[in-house]
Structure formats: structure tokens, C-alpha cells
Amino acid sequence: MFSKFKKNSNSTAIEYLVVGLGNPGKEYENTRHNCGFIAVDHIAEKLGCKMNKLKFKSTIGDCVINSHRCLLMKPSTFMNLSGQAVTSAMQFYKIPPENVIVIFDDISLDVGKMRIRRKGSDGGQKGMQNIIYLSGSENFPRIKVGIGKKPHPEYDLKKWVLSKFSNDDKKLIDPLLDNILDAVSHIVSNNIDKAMNLYNS
């Protein structure tokens, strides 16, 4: 692990990054690919955290989750360059990959399902791929949010991930967002195993 990501021992400093992946801009709002943004917005709303600052090529908010100071992040770099924002914040706060929780979409999971992993490969997700490439580490806890498979094999993948959730989908997404916040709360409290036991589909 790079020394620049050495864990910060100052308890009053930012301890964790909670990063939702997505694309900036009105045309991408509430699309399947932006479920990371949707999740972070929900966390901010529930915690009364204002996401109103621009730093690290991201929209950010400073909050406390289970007594741990966390920085909520929505990179504005577009999905495929998410690593620029994430590694910039990691270097500034000297936060190791193990303390960076990344939330992103997964087409292999049904809508309303989530899966938590302690670390691992990018699984074909371009934003996660860029984070791993620029940081040189796969040790990022991540929460994968199901967006469902393509309607049929010939359906264009880009068109699918950039489509909006249906009304029926939204009924499944809303309760899932509370579960994501609860999972993040467990992870920052060093209880990722409990989070996985509770919520892995």
C-alpha cells in the first residue's frame, strides 16, 4: 500500500470517504448508472449533511457517521475518470483504501438488491476500474447496487445503464437506500462482516 495513503491518526480529521459514482449533469440524474449519486444524496439528506461544496473535482459534504467523521463525495469527473477525484481526496487526508467506501451500480444484481465486498477487482465497472488503476490498490470496501440486467441480450448496454428507473423500480430502490446507509454505518465502525451478513443478496 502506498505510504501516501497511510491512515490518519488524528481523530478530529476526516477518517472515511464515502464515494458515490455517477455522471454529472441534468441528463444523467436518476439514471441507473447514477445510483451511487442517488445513495450519497440519500445519506446526506438523512444525516442533515449539506452537499454544497466543490473540492477534489467533486461535490462534497462533511458529516459524522457513528462518531466517525466522513466526507461524502460525488465526483464530477464523469464515471470513467472517478479515480482522479477519489485519489486526490485520499492523498489530501492521508486516507488508506480500506477507509474509502465506494457505492456504484451493478447490472448483475436485480433492482432492490445490494452486495457488499471488502475488496476485489473492478468487475468491469469503469469508475471502479479507474480508482483501482490510479490508486494502485484493490482494497476498497464497496457497495454494489443492483440496476438489473438488460431487457434482452441485444439491448445496447450504454442505453440501458443510462435509462431511468421505472416507477416499479423506485418502489424497490427507496427502502434499499436506508439499508445502504445502515451498511455504511457498520463499515465505518469496523463491522463490515455484519454489514455483509445483513445485506448481501
Keywords:
single chain, 201 residues, alpha/beta, Rossmann fold, seven-stranded mixed sheet, 6 helices, disordered N terminus
Radius of gyration of CA atoms, rounded to a whole number: 16 Å
Query: What is the number of beta strands?
Result: 7
Oligomer: single chain
The H/E string reads EHEEEHEEHEHHH
Give the overall pLDDT as a whole number.
91
Could you explain the architecture of this structure?
This protein has 201 residues and is α/β, with parallel strands linked by helices. It has a single domain, classed as 3-Layer(aba) Sandwich (Rossmann fold), CATH 3.40.50. It contains six helices and seven strands; from the N terminus they run βαβββαββαβααα. The model is unreliable at 1-11 (pLDDT under 50).
